[in-house]
Design a protein that fits this description.
The complex is a heterodimer of chains A (299) and B (228). By secondary structure, chain A is α+β, with helices and mostly antiparallel strands. Chain A contains 10 helices and 6 strands; from the N terminus they run H-H-E-H-E-H-H-E-H-E-H-H-H-E-E-H. Chain A starts with a helix and ends in a 5-residue tail after the last helix. Chain B has 7 helices and 10 strands. The chains are: A alpha+beta (299), B alpha/beta (228).
Chain lengths: 299, 228
């Protein structure tokens, strides 16, 4: 009972002190708000870059052209052989007839030219469309397929794909570093601001020690205060991030510049983002103030 | 058994200054003791040893059975809960009312609110500030602020009240008012140790007087007065 009363006293004290030291609380809250807005923006950016690179990587396909006159049995055997390779995600067969129709549908001119051929004289080749699991190893997989029998040629945008994958990898790493960096900066800024707040309350801590408050009793309200400040500081960034991103998403119809770049659906990101922002605010706030108050407990 | 026992205590600060040299004092329960001496005589250091603001370099300081010399930093609160401390600069929190400043010392015990209110009002009444319990420190005079600090020190009925120059910032009349309150607290059974510069007070009250000079206890007299 006594412990519960002390705990509630502590939480009550934390609330009181947030309002009593309002100007200092406000500076802590605004510091948390500003840094969390930056964190939110960089998380949204990084999620979108990730989605874009994933989309592109998913689209990368090895086209395997099959030698003219290969029997149906051999074609099937080739599929089994390709499926045996370790890096294969999916494999689809396209007959030359299907390809001819597709091409004719895509462009009238080509349709006219190809219309002159029938099934027998179709100059195109049957093909397999192979998607790989790890795009970075696409070169190895492609060369393994090339070695197989009845393969005429293969194409996968040699060179360009590897370059693209490398660039995306760097971009992804950079965005992760930026997000982590921002979180560290946030932690530093918040704990610094709280340190100033606490320096201003040295006297309060000193008196608490003198009237016989134990160290943990002194630390607890500051801990709760940090939680409250962190929570309050994360409200505006959450609203800005959610409404801002939804607005942007609707305004742009979910795409950026071209249909190749589709944006992450707000439903898939904003819940996590809100939870992450609250957690960063609360955890950094709580520990920032907890650690700062410790320095003053040696009186 | 004595409530406070100071045995062969030396205190040397890191800068080399010797503040106390071989101090031996026994203080029985209920005593009223003045600690006097010029500036830098070591009286403040002696007082600070009692509530473990300072640790002795050598020797033992027993306060209410606790050896202060060996008390760990995180256990200091156990000692301070047995004490009431009054300072020259009052050490009140400006953002709290008189009532809250006094109640502050009780919060740590997690007492029910009714009990807290009773004890706090009791202490405020003892120092004669019942009418002003809603005021903030900056709305009070120096003497009144010191009375609030005394109320805070006695609200938990400590066995020992330590006063570090409590009248140092006050005019003679106000000082006498404060002394009357402290004397009354002593009459109710609390042991008082008070460092002071004030000759008039020491001479008027005729209590036990410890005189320090350059860190040495040069006199310990029952019903003494101010030397020289």
């Amino acid at each position: 009972m006594k412990a519960i009363r002390i705990l509630f006293n502590n939480i009550g004290d934390a609330f009181k002190s947030v309002f009593r030291n309002f100007s200092l609380s406000l500076s802590s809250i605004s510091c948390i708000t500003i840094t969390l807005i930056l964190v939110a923006v960089s998380i949204i950016l990084s999620e979108n870059v990730n989605k874009f690179t994933d989309d592109i990587e998913k689209d990368v396909t090895i086209v395997v052209y099959i030698e003219k006159g290969t029997s149906e049995n051999d074609i099937e055997a080739m599929q089994a052989e390709i499926e045996k390779l370790s890096n294969i995600d999916s494999i689809t067969f396209m007959s030359k007839e299907e390809i001819r129709k597709d091409m004719a549908n895509d462009s009238e001119g080509i349709g006219n030219i190809l219309g002159e051929y029938d099934e027998e004289t179709n100059p195109l080749l049957d093909e397999y469309l192979v998607k790989v699991i790890d795009t970075e190893k696409i070169g190895t997989t492609a060369s393994e397929i090339k070695e197989m029998e009845n393969v005429n040629t293969i194409k996968y945008g040699e060179g360009m794909v590897e370059e693209l994958v490398k660039i995306f990898d760097v971009v992804k790493k950079i965005t992760v570093i930026i997000v982590i960096g921002l979180i560290v900066v946030t932690a530093f800024l918040i704990s610094n601001t709280i340190k100033i707040t606490i320096n201003n309350r040295k006297r309060q801590i000193e008196i608490m020690r003198l009237v016989g408050a134990s160290n943990s009793y002194i630390k607890l309200p500051f801990f709760f205060e940090g939680v409250i400040l962190g929570f309050l500081g994360s409200i505006i960034p959450i609203f800005l991030a959610c409404y801002g991103y939804i607005f942007l998403y609707q305004k742009l119809n979910g795409i950026l510049f071209t249909e190749v770049i589709t944006l992450v659906n707000p439903d898939n990101i904003l819940y996590h983002l809100s939870v992450i922002l609250i957690l960063i605010g609360v955890i950094v706030g709580a520990f920032g103030s907890y650690l700062s108050v410790r320095r003053h407990l040696k009186i | 058994m004595n409530l406070i026992e100071i045995k062969n205590v030396y205190k040397q600060y890191k800068n080399g200054t010797t503040a106390l040299c071989d101090i031996n004092v026994s203080i029985p329960k209920g005593d009223f003791i003045f600690v006097i001496g010029a500036t830098a005589s070591g009286k403040s250091t002696l007082i600070k040893l009692l509530y473990r603001q300072e640790k002795p370099s050598r020797g033992d300081v027993f306060v209410g059975g606790i050896n202060v010399a060996k008390l760990k930093n995180r256990k200091v609160y156990k000692l301070r809960r047995k004490l009431g401390i009054v300072f020259q600069d009052y050490k009140l929190l400006p953002s709290l009312t008189v009532y809250e400043n006094v109640a502050f010392a009780l919060e740590i015990y997690g007492l029910p609110e009714r009990e807290v209110r009773k004890k706090v009002m009791n202490a405020i009444e003892k120092v004669g500030l019942k009418e002003k319990f809603r005021s903030y420190p900056d709305q009070l005079s120096g003497g009144e602020q010191q009375r609030v600090s005394i109320a805070r020190a006695i609200v938990n009925s400590p066995k020992i009240l330590i006063c570090d120059e409590p009248t140092g910032n006050l005019d003679p009349d106000t000082s006498m008012g404060i002394m009357e309150i402290i004397n009354k607290i002593n009459e109710e059974g609390t042991t008082i140790i008070m460092a002071t510069h004030d000759k008039d007070i020491v001479n008027k009250y005729q209590k036990r007087v410890l005189t320090l000079e350059k860190g040495i206890l040069i006199s310990d007299k029952e019903k003494g007065g101010y030397l020289k």
